[in-house]
Amino acid sequence: MTADLTITAVHLTPILVADPPLLNTQGVHQPYTPRLIIEVETADGVTGVGETYGDAKYLELAQPFAEKLMGRQISDLNGLFTVADEVAVDDSRVSGRVDVGGLRGVQTADKLRLSVVSGFEVACLDALGKALGLPVHALLGGKVRDSVEYSAYLFYKWAAHPEGVPAEPDDWGAAVDPAGVVAQARAFTERYGFTSFKLKGGVFPPDEEIAAIRALAEAFPGHPLRLDPNGAWSVETSLRVAAELGDVLEYLEDPALGTPAMAEVAAKAGVPLATNMCVTTFGEIPEAFAKGAVQVVLSDHHYWGGLRATQQLAAVCRTFGVGVSMHSNTHLGISLAAMTHVAATVPDLHHACDSHYPWQSEDVLTERIVFEGGRVTVSDAPGLGVELDRDRLAFLHRRWLDDDGTLRDRDDAAAMRVAHPDWVTPSVPRW
Ligand SMILES: O=C([O-])C(=O)C[C@H](O)[C@@H](O)C(=O)[O-]
Ligand SMILES: [Mg+2]
Hints:
This protein is α/β, with parallel strands linked by helices. It is built from 14 helices and 14 strands. It folds into two domains: 7-137 and 389-403, Enolase-like, N-terminal domain (Enolase-like, domain 1); 141-377, TIM Barrel (Alpha-Beta Barrel). Helix content is 37%, strand content 16%. Helix 5 (178-192) links the parallel strand 7 (152-155) and strand 8. The relative contact order is 0.17. The model has no long low-confidence stretch (mean pLDDT 97). Its cofactor is Mg(2+).
């Protein structure tokens, strides 16, 4: 009997998940961050799950998009993009804006749509895999590796969210200096076996961050290290940091803001530059590649438009001799599973991917995804190989319902103002 792949129901569940007080150049992470969990159900009762950003601007697109999917086939992945084009984006959401203060690059109507489509694409692939008895990587053409390497994503962080702010405690401790960063890196290796390290920079003056990377290089000799100040530095500062750390960095990530500045740095830095800020859409590739502004593009299936778009990006990068790896924002196990499936299919993946997952103590899966030796094993179970924990989902959704709206949109600057009322988002370049 052939499977009936018709979509008969779509469930959208916005949730708030605990996030530690991780610092970046914009501010600090909120105690709870929004995500959207997507379930797509077929006429045969097969359910697929996906995950994407949960801020209001995504939710307001996801709802009409979901309605248009009823009666379509889960196998019609190309159709998702056609349907997305029919969903109107409110101009106020995109005019002159960047996403999360620029952490995810420009904000356009298309990119907003793609960030929604990606969650649905993953849900459809999960359902399709379950219906056909095939893992998602097989639907993407098959895995070329059995496990995917991730890097330890180190953050400067406070020991706890500001006093009086409802939050979940974490056991990572504070990290506000080189010793704290090294201690955090050691905890990452002990808990997960990571062997490469990325430090989120742009938080302290560059000399302090140079000292932290030097301390890491001393503590973990020969291990790949990266520093990512999210465009906080001038060209001059970027070149100075590159000169100071060139001998220990695998790559420098988004030292300066925008393709022209990145190109200036790349021309003289002597260290490869990676980005998840100046190349975040296919339209930004020609200029950046022509100018030699980036040597590694950090894909993110959420905003590039899904797993197949990630494969297309990898093919373009391969064509131009540019490396590819993966960027990450706060995400849960569904997205980690999706990232792992697609990463398993990309032939030239030569850098460990980023993942925030270790920072997320809460998940919506019955079993957490495990890192062993810094790697996630590629699942061969049908679909993504994950199972939704409905009680957890309901609990995290209840938290979202109970929120008065304060936390439903990620705002790192607002979270910083709770501790430092005078905080204003630093103008760029900050140093
Ligand atoms: O540039 C990056 O790698 C990121 O923007 C990743 C995340 O957004 C990270 O900086 C964060 O969540 O603070
Ligand atoms: Mg980055």
